[in-house]
Structures are given as structure tokens and as C-alpha cells.
Amino acid sequence: MNTAAVPFTPARTESMLTQLAGKETARYARHPLFLVGVVLVASSSIGKPDGFSSSLGNVIAPAAGLGVIGLLVMASLTRTSDQVATAAGTVAVSERTRTMALVCAMIVPFTAGLIWLLWAIWAYRHWPPAANGAPFGGVSDGWAYANLIALGLIPSLGGPVLGLLLARWVPRRGAAPLFAVLVVAETIIMQGLFEPLRYARLVAPWTYFTGPYGVPGDADRIMILTGSPHWYCVYLLALCALGVVLALLHDREHPRNRLFVALGVIAAVAVITCVLAITTGVQDVMINPLPSGLS
């Protein structure tokens, strides 16, 4: 007996997306790795933060706990979603709808990142950086808040986007852990430790703007590196949008012309904002005139 196919009307597709998004959101919130990441972030937020840079010194916690771990979580959820669709035989939900549902599920890590950001801003104001810390000189608190957003909040979105993109185009089981290791290695290289890379480091999806880079005779002297964290935030958001569009482009069953147009526009925005992040803001490395007191 032949079964008539049910057409995917816009209303039906929207209803399916809403239902599937709810399921994927719940799956993300219950994922063991996400819960581990939340515990790591929460434990790093207990007590007084670093005395030199206040909560600016804590950005690595959400970047790792919600970003890098989020990459692994989303890659896992994407594989599971595809396996369920394959096991169903005739796919009742298109890949594009499943991808959009997974994008909706990113509200979970983003909310966790937002909670961390609220704590970080409170901690920064409650325990301001020391005079020999950062920021200093003419650098304002707005610079610090942009740092917290770029390096603490946005990774909670960027990591899962990267996991989704990777799972769509490289659906091998070991690809996500390997790529997570590569991301960490790239971050170490581009975080400003190597002076020749400091000016161009902002092409990377995560890098510091300040830290104890040291000077002769004071290995822990605080510096502020070049670049604008405000434009860097916009650049990172453009990268997130770019990742979502690239993930959606994997589905060849739906028209992709508009996605290609969006890809071109967002790529142009990413290039422009990256250039602005590099060429505006602080343009000469600033060295805190006060000694670190640690050397």
C-alpha cells in the first residue's frame, strides 16, 4: 500500500521546528559534559577573583567550560540527531530543520554564559583590579566589559556553533575531540605570548588583551596589548553567524541561493570588523608603570 507524502508547508515546518527545538534544548541542558562545564565555571567563580585584573582573569573558565566543552556537546547532539533521523527510515524532518533546532538549543550555554557575565561584571566592580593590574592608564572600564563579553560570554555561543559546523561537514566520531585540541593549541599560540604575532592575533577566535607578559627585570609586569575588544566582539558574532550559515548550507535538499548571499555578506562583515578590531583601539602596547610585586 502506498503512503501519500505529507507536504512540508511553512506552518507545519514551523511547528516541527518548535517541537524539535524544545527537545534539543532539553537534551543540551541534560548533557553530562555541559553539566561538567557548568560546575567548572561555577567553581571558578567562588570567592575573590585575581587581584591584578579582577574577573578579567576568569574569562578562561567559561571559554573552556562552555566554549570548548560546548563544541563537544553540540557535535554529540548533532550526531545523535542524525542517527535518529536515519533510523526513522524516511526522514520526516529535514536536515535544515534539525540544524535550526540545534541552533535554538544554544540558548542553554548562552544563558549560562550570560549568568557568568553578570557575576563577572559584579565581581569587577566589587573587587576592582589593583593599580599594578589591568586596565590602567587611559583605558576605561568599558574596555574591560568588552573583554568579558568577547572572551567569556561569546565563547558560550561560538563553541557550540563550531561543534555544529564540524559535525555537519566532518561527521567522524573523533573529529570533535581532535578539533578541540587544535583549538586549544591555536589559542596558546595566538594569545600574545609570541611578540611577532601580537598585532595580528585578533584574527583568532579567542585571544587575550591583557596579561602578565613581563618586561626585563619583572617577568609578571602587566601589559595591555593592541586592538579594540569592542570591534572584536562584533567580529566574533560575525564568525558565529558565519558558522550557522555554513552548517545550514550542508543541506542540499533545500534552495541555498539566499544562504550563499548571506554567506557573502556575513563574510564581508567578518573581514571588515576583524580589520577594525586590529587597527583601532590601543595601537601601542601599554606597560603598567607599577611593578607586579611578584618577581
Question: Summarize this, please?
Answer:
By secondary structure, this protein is an all-alpha fold. The protein contains 10 helices and 3 strands, in the order H-H-H-H-H-H-H-H-E-E-H-H-E.
Describe this structure in words.
By secondary structure, the chain is mainly alpha-helical. It has one domain. It is 61% helix and 2% strand. Keywords: Membrane, Transmembrane, Transmembrane helix. This is ABC-2 type transport system permease protein.
Rg is 21 Å
Helix content: 55-70%
Provide the structure class: mainly alpha
| SSE series | HHHHHHHHEEHHE
Protein name: ABC-2 type transport system permease protein
Organism: Kribbella caucasensis
Keywords: Membrane, Transmembrane, Transmembrane helix
Transmembrane segments: 59-78, 99-122, 142-167, 174-194, 229-249, 261-282
Could you outline the blueprint of secondary structure elements for this entry?
Blueprint: H1 10-30, H2 32-44, H3 60-87, H4 95-105, H5 107-126, H6 141-153, H7 155-169, H8 175-190, E1 210-211, E2 223-224, H9 229-248, H10 257-279, E3 286-287
Antiparallel strand pairs: 1-2, 2-3
Helix pairs in contact: 1-4, 2-3, 3-4, 3-5, 3-7, 3-8, 5-6, 5-7, 6-9, 7-9, 9-10
